[in-house]
Amino acid sequence: MRNETSNNHLDREFPMSNRNFELIADVAYHITGIKLGDHKRNMIYSRLARRIRALKLQSFDQYCALIEGQEGPEIHEFVNAITTNLTSFFREPHHFEFLANKVFADLKRQGQTRRVRGWSAGCSTGEEPYSIAMVIREIMPPSGWDIKLLATDLDSNVVAHSMEGVYSADRIADLSTTRQQKWFMKGKSGEQVKVKSSLQNLITFKQLNLLHNWPMKGTFDFIFCRNVVIYFDKETQKVLFDRYADILKPNGYLFIGHSETLHKVSDRFRSLGKTIYQKIR
After folding, report:
1. Of 117, 153, 155, 221, which one is the catalytic site residue?
2. Could you say which of 35, 55, 82 is where a domain stops?
3. What span, in angstroms and rounded, lies between the C-alpha atoms of 60 and 65?
4. Which residues span the domain enclosing 216?
5. Is 19 considered catalytic here?
């Protein structure tokens, strides 16, 4: 018989049994498509223990009873708690260099429609879409173009954070002085900065579950979906990348995370190297 408390610290504030973790993982998978392996146990404990305290519950058994039906007000908080939001401005800078030197350069040269659409799918706290917006403002002509960027995330809390556009000053410390001065306003204390409206006006932020129906009607020139599919199993990845191909324009671009790949997942893209892909069908 398996030890019900294996891989669990018995002296924790709220012991989490194997049965608890398996139910949590099952609910997470069915709602979000995220696979929670056993190596995520400590992270899940830490995040959900906060919810147990906030709800003034006594145990993981009580918490699991709240989410077991996969509905009710706590499900929203559960999803926010388990999703990971680690990001920075211009993370994986080669992607933004390619965006500037290839994607936008080609769009400017061709210039027939003067319409550009991009999507940051899994935008976290906003650093990625604001980085894209900086490139747009720095590269593309200031007038005569219809340019819009969609930024979505499963976690409604980080979407709200993104919309506000306020960050601690140390978050932009690695940006050039020119970019800091051009795109951010400092608060009175100097400890916080706010993204300028010229960037915010380019972006529409929305909460979106990638596994549900997408409300977007048009097609995109490029999609950033970085460090998102690592939480999905292969079958879910195949479905998702197929949907991305469907909504990208012919020869559109897909940017994924440094630890992700389309190898044996999708044959609708060709690799351009450095986790940049171009739609071929």
Report:
1. 153
2. 82
3. 8
4. 93-279
5. no
Same domain, 233 and 161: yes
Q: Is 153 a catalytic residue?
A: yes
Please write the tens of the pLDDT for every residue from 201-260. 999 999 999 999 999 989 999 999 998 987 788 999 999 999 999 999 999 999 998 879
Strand partners, 207: 153
Looking at the structure, do residues 192 and 157 belong to the same domain, yes or no? yes
Asked whether the beta carbons of 8 and 17 are under 8 A apart, the reply is yes
Structural domains of the chain, count = 2
Question: Among 2, 26, 41, 47, which one carries the catalytic annotation?
Answer: 47
User: What is the pTM assigned to this prediction?
Assistant: 0.82
3-state DSSP percent of the chain in helix, strand and coil, to 5: 45, 20, 35
CA nearest neighbour of 6 among 16, 211, 125 = 16
Among the candidates 29, 55, 82, a domain finishes at 82
